Amino acid sequence: MSEAPAAIYEGKAKILYPGDDADTLVLFFKDDTSAFDGEKREQLARKGEINNAFNAYIQTYLQEHGVPTHFVRRLDARRSLVRRLDMIPVESVLRNRAAGSLCRRLGIEEGRLLEPPVLEFFLKNDALHDPMINRSHMRTFGYASTTEVELMEHWTQRVNTLLSARFADAGLVLVDFKLEFGRAGGEILLGDEFSPDGCRLWDAQSQEKMDKDRFRRGLGGVVEAYIEVAHRLGIATDA
Predict the structure, then answer these.
(1) For the chain, where do the domains classified as CATH 3.30.200.20 start and end?
(2) What percentage of the chain's residues is helix, strand, coil (to nearest 5)?
């Protein structure tokens, strides 16, 4: 019997394994949950499989609407096949309402409608607490070219348009979200994942938090909220 392939990389919530060829990877979703740059950690049963199903749905939905992503297909409950990317070490964050670090930095009340939405970039570096950066930093330090930044902005705004409408149809407000991008074959593709771990979703009527803020703030019912969001979108979770 052949041994399972060794992991290429293990992050806080996912593990990367080699795919069947040099151009693909297998994304394994763990039950691990963390916040505050890993200072708060916990394992939440079934979170990995819920996020895998959620991500498969969102990535497929975006592809069907013209957004280029690295997603190939869902393999099983916890694994998905994706294209291998040369990742850009920058998070693109789109904010439709004020929440999280924006409120802390600027003293803005949580929930304030942001018109137009705010688009920010952050360097992916836990040791530095993911500092905010701008276009000039990205050019000077070689994180991304001017053209790549423009594409990241374009696709982030397109994702916002698509998903804000999709979540609104499910009775949810897309408060904010983060995206990561990478290079493959001369293209810029959406990478990583899209799940309630990396966005804020509120119930449109009650404003109840339906995302990882439930873990950050010790509200409980984290996986239950994820499952509720999935069900509203028509994603099967077998729960």
Answers:
(1) 9-83
(2) 30, 35, 35
Residue type, 166: R
pLDDT value at residue 134: 97
Mapped onto helix, strand or coil, the DSSP state of residue 159 is helix
Mean pLDDT of the chain: 95
* CATH number, domain 86-221: 3.30.470.20
> What fold characterizes domain 9-83?
Phosphorylase Kinase; domain 1 (3.30.200)
| E strand intervals along the chain | 9-10, 14-18, 24-29, 32-35, 40-43, 71-74, 79-83, 86-97, 113-123, 132-133, 172-184, 187-190, 199-203
- 3-class DSSP state of 147: helix
pLDDT digits (tens, 9 = 90+) for 55-100: 999 999 999 999 999 999 999 999 999 999 999 999 999 999 999 9
Residue range(s) of every CATH 3.30.470.20 domain in the chain:
86-221
